[in-house]
Design a protein that fits this description.
With about 190 residues, the protein is an alpha+beta fold. About 30% of the residues lie in helices and about 15% in strands. It has 5 helices and 5 strands. Strand 1 and strand 2 (about 25-30) form a beta hairpin. Helix 2 crosses helix 4 and helix 3 packs across helix 4 (about 125-135). The longest helix is centred in the middle third of the chain and has 18 residues, at about 60-75. It binds a DNA duplex (13 and 13 nucleotides) through helix 3 and helix 4.
Length: about 190
DNA sequence: CAGGATCTACTTG
DNA sequence: CAAGTAGATCCTG
């Protein structure tokens, strides 16, 4: 099996929009199949573009984007996101898609270890490969790869920068072993820290 | 074939 | 307890 997807051209982007949050400006992309990519705010993007509210986009994307924005805000605020846009995960390999699918089952506030995820997909020894699949997750936050920790509740890694993983987990009230504190500079988004 | 967002089991300060 | 080391394992490009 494992037929190489010759069709379904996943690379074609219909629209690239942004979602403005207290944590910065997220950049998201849509294909014909749905949300295909979420990018964490970068310092450069923070110098917000014209991005005046909701740009004019055709209807499929428009409602998808509303859901994306809402879900993003909800999760960042520590609230359960209920409504998601369709996801286009066609760029992934079968293995990665299996992992991403399982990640979606980890509810807010919960965590799993890379080893546990490996077991969930029925490939208990592919622990390290699971880490790779998490890192390849094209839709972070909405597909909660940040809820996967290393053994003994250590933080583990994160492609988008460990600080984001910390922030997201803290927002969800998850406790983790202070792995390594270093790694990142000043982050000042303090969404009303109570 | 080399390299990772790992893990377990030691061994050392 | 924190921090290395070694070997095992498996998916990817």
């Amino acid at each position: 099996m494992r037929v190489r997807q010759a069709t379904s051209n996943p690379g074609i982007i219909l629209a690239e929009l942004t979602v403005s949050t207290e944590a910065g400006l997220f950049r998201v992309r849509y294909s014909v199949a749905g949300l295909s990519e979420v990018e964490f705010p970068k310092e450069e993007n923070d110098a917000q573009l014209p991005a005046a509210a909701t740009p004019s986009v055709a209807e499929p994307v428009k409602s998808w984007h509303e859901k994306t924005a809402r879900a993003l805000h909800d999760i960042l605020a520590g609230r359960e996101a209920k409504d998601f846009p369709p996801f286009d995960l066609s760029i992934g390999t079968e293995f990665q898609k299996r992992v991403w699918h399982v990640l979606r089952k980890i509810e807010m506030g919960q965590t799993r270890s890379y080893a546990e995820v490996a077991e969930m997909i029925g490939n208990p020894k592919a622990v390290r490969a699971v880490g790779g699949a998490c890192g390849a997750n094209p839709i972070p936050v909405l597909i909660p790869c940040h809820r996967v920790l290393a053994a003994r509740h250590k933080l583990g890694g994160f492609s988008g920068g460990l600080n984001w993983k910390r922030i997201l987990l803290e927002r969800e009230g998850v406790l983790f072993s202070s792995d390594r504190l270093s790694e990142t500079p000043e982050f000042n988004w303090r969404a009303d820290d109570r």
